[in-house]
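idk why but the lab printer keeps eating my pages so im just putting this in chat instead. protein + flavin-adenine dinucleotide:
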Amino acid sequence: MSLQLQSQVSLKPFNSFGVDVRAQLFAEAHSDADVREALAYATAHDLPLLVIGGGSNLLLTADIPALVLRMASRGIRLIDDGDRVVIEAEAGEPWHPFVQHTLAQGFSGLENLSLIPGTVGAAPMQNIGAYGVEIKDVFAGLTALDRETGELRDFSLEECNFAYRDSLFKQQPGRWLILRVRFKLDRVAHLHLEYGPVRQRLTEQGIEQPTPTDVSRAICSIRSEKLPDPAVLGNAGSFFKNPLVSAALVEQIKAQHPDLVAYAQPDGQMKLAAGWLIERAGWKGFREADAGVHKLQALVLVNYGAATGLQLLDLAQRIQKDIAERFNVELEMEPNRY
Ligand code: FAD
Ligand code: NAP
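predcted complex ->
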């Protein structure tokens, strides 16, 4: 048995909120064989199995009566070297260093997704996105283990049901264990600069003809200014998804709040900036005990040290209720709750 099982392990170092709960059992998977061993152990001992990566999209509200398996498999390989390259990475590869690796090889496509915490294997779960790019835009396939049958399955782009912060894997929780993911990248860059302050930041830096690495650096600098570093202040990034609402509701809210921020979607819906709604409702910088709303970014809930998952959840629910009452908008939580 190569799997090292530990009992009653604090998950504080393994979730970016820094919430202190315990896993009944804990192990790290470095290979497919470890994953299969963990599944077999959990089945034999009638224990649930919870797979985690970097723990940057989790809200842990109680001790976890399960075998928590942290994906730690490593490996990056080029599997198609044509005009567009296909590069495959193991689930446990840390996301941002993987992005940096692709840029160092001269491959473009992932630069807008720089500095997102977490692992490669979790990236398809919510189709991670930032600055106008989502992984569905560069996705070439993935291999997952079907926990119901024990069989491996390759998924194409169409089969993943990717949508805004959503995928088949999120819709079928606990069924698919993602082992490795493939990305289709370009040798000739097609940059996306029109989102938020990206182009402006490059201009301020005197860069008129940016390379993908320039874009990555600009995005890293913007993110570092606005977002709390989980190593310093516990958080899970955006706590709520940006809500998609009807144009009619946008008009209703605008009657009271003419400066409402709303973005038209291709299907006719409008996307509201949840952070704007929360800030306008007065929650920015709010703190109660050690649970709070970040001072610079109202979409980010923070743990000042000893907040429990339940305290963070309670704060989130109060914000949801207030936003529903003020604006008639339902906010959906983004982190996965256990
Ligand atoms: P975890 O939090 O460990 O797990 C997330 C979910 O995926 C859980 O349900 C877990 O069970 C499941 N899971 C994990 N690995 C696997 C696997 N191999 N197979 C099957 N299921 C698995 N997200 C964005 O989309 N865009 C951003 O710009 C962004 N910025 C962020 C900034 C900060 C400061 C923080 C803290 C978070 C941010 N996030 C962002 C959220 C988060 O980083 C991403 O969702 C990331 O992909 C989560 O990866 P993880 O490895 O930490 O997953
Ligand atoms: P921002 O630039 O202040 O913009 C606020 C919101 O407006 C964003 O959430 C974004 O929606 C939307 N937006 C901005 N420009 C847009 C455009 N041209 N077209 C359509 N929508 C637009 O946002 P931020 O908080 O600093 O984050 C920057 C990027 O990183 C965003 O893409 C955000 O999603 C991503 N991010 C995600 C997380 C997470 O945990 N999920 C955490 C931090 C940052 P979208 O969110 O839909 O892009």
